[in-house]
Amino acid sequence: MKRLITFLDEGSGTQLVLPVTPAGYEWARQAAIQVVTVDQLGDLNFFGGRRMASATLAECILPAHAYPFLSPGASTDPWSYVAQLERWIEAGTVLRFLVSGTPVNEAVLLESAVYREQDGTNDLYADLTIRQYLKPETPVLPAQEQAQPAASRDSATGASQARTYEVVRGDTLWDICRRFYGDGSLCWDLAAYNQVANANLIYPGQVFQIPPRDQLPGAEEKPESARAAEATTARYGDGGWTLSLPEGG
Predict the structure, then answer these.
(1) What residues contact residue 78 under an 8 Å CB cut-off, 6+ apart?
(2) Lowest mean pLDDT among 66-70, 88-92, 142-146
(3) N or C end: fewer C-beta atoms under 10 angstroms in the chain?
(4) What residues contact residue 241 under an 8 Å CB cut-off, 6+ apart?
(5) What are 7-66's pLDDT values in tens digits?
């Protein structure tokens, strides 16, 4: 099956499918390894976190003619591709780098697009350099000593006032509460605080206020679906999952 390489701007829904799949591509999963030299032991290697990957897609053809090997729906205006690539570069747009038929689906920034004409056909040849992107989370900094007593800080959120969190794909309100409060069951309280009717229904881009734990409202009576979910247990065995539902469920 022919691979299709796509760049997708999830914010606007704009996508660019390379009109001709490059001869090859590579993507690496890397770790930052720190080497420390210890007296009488020599060099020791320590895991230093995740290293962001980068790659260059070389010799990407942006065609001026309707060749039979083009991707379905490909344009024969090479400069339209250049214009879109340059807009993304100048705006610093976070894109999804997708390779069809593979698990490759990465958030990236487009670092550069170097293009040229080289054979008199009016086709352009582009080298696209991309770098993996990871959205940084705002670190919780310790309160500095002040002359006046500082506002008391919630032990779970580390903040004296509400902070915000933007939902990304794959998030659940349960996971968000477990991340900030250490207790996923507070999802109903957090939903009530943000005037969200259904804690099970959130979407990417939605912004939640994350207050200190003691400012969360007492959870109203949970809907039947929530009570059933909490009472349901799961067990893995014999090649699959077995769910045990509560009585009357």
Answers:
(1) 62, 63, 64, 122, 123, 124
(2) 142-146
(3) N
(4) 234, 235
(5) 999 888 899 999 999 988 888 888 888 888 887 788 888 887 878 889 999 999 999 999
Q: Give the closest residue to 209 by CA, choosing from 172, 185, 176.
A: 176
pLDDT higher for 140 or 114? 114
Token pair 């800080």 is at which residue? 153
Mapping DSSP to helix (H, G, I), strand (E, B) and coil, where does residue 177 land?
A: helix
d(CA 53, CA 32): 11
55: phi then psi, degrees, rounded to nearest 5: -155, 155
Most confident of 54-63, 221-230, 239-248: 54-63
C-beta of residue 21 within 8 angstroms of C-beta of residue 4:
yes
Q: Which helix H or strand E contains 174, and what residues bound it?
A: helix 173-181
> Other CB atoms closer than 10 Å to residue 17's CB: what's the count?
19
170-216 pLDDT, tens digit each: 888 988 988 888 888 888 899 999 988 888 888 888 999 999 888 88
Kindly state the tokens that stand for 13: 């829904």
Structure tokens at 91: 């705006």
Q: How far apart are the first and last CA of the chain?
A: 46
Distance CA 57, CA 130 (A): 8
> 132 with 108: CB under 8 angstroms?
yes
Two structure tokens written together for 196: 């969200």
Report how far apart, in Å, the C-alpha atoms of 244 and of each of 19, 231, 232, 233 are: 50, 9, 6, 5
